[in-house]
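Q: what sequence does this backbone want?
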């Protein structure tokens, strides 16, 4: 089905539309993501998978901000989010909310990481993505239950943080 631009982007959903969203037990934790277009795109991803909440941590910019809004196409207005001091704090909050049943998975190239295609990504789950250059901090990696990465077969050794998260989220929905 081909949709027009207006049908593709609901700028202001009704209360009825919002009440019908069955939020999944998917949490997204942004560990010092600096690019506001990445942040906005992650809001759009969170809306697409009906994530329960997005945690904006540390130096991650928060709405309202025009560049976030532009990339998010308004989704930052209805996707639940919270700014917290650190990703470590966000992990603790997620585990408290869900009685410690939430599996926390970092999306990062790190020693001991495994191919995301073989990982157990079932809900309840929290995904941690990190700074565009420095990645997920070592302190945060130590708190995660698992670290997954996307295999790279070309010359380039990494993908954009939003693209990586999209690949992972597409596997679980």
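A:
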């Amino acid at each position: 089905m081909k949709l027009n631009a207006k049908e593709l982007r609901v700028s202001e959903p009704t209360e009825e539309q919002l009440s019908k969203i069955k939020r999944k037990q998917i949490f997204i934790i942004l560990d010092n993501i600096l690019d506001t277009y990445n942040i906005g795109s992650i809001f759009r991803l969170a809306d697409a998978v009906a994530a329960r909440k997005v945690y904006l941590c540390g130096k991650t910019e928060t709405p309202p901000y025009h560049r976030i809004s532009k990339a998010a196409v308004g989704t930052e207005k209805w996707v639940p989010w919270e700014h917290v001091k650190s990703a470590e704090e966000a992990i603790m909050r997620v585990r408290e909310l869900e009685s410690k049943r939430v599996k926390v998975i970092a999306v990062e190239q790190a020693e001991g990481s495994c191919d995301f295609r073989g990982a157990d990504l079932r809900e309840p789950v929290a995904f941690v993505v990190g700074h565009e250059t420095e990645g997920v901090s070592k302190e945060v990696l130590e708190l995660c239950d698992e670290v997954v990465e996307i295999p790279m077969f070309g010359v380039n050794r990494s993908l954009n943080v939003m693209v990586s998260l999209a690949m992972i989220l597409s596997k679980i929905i």
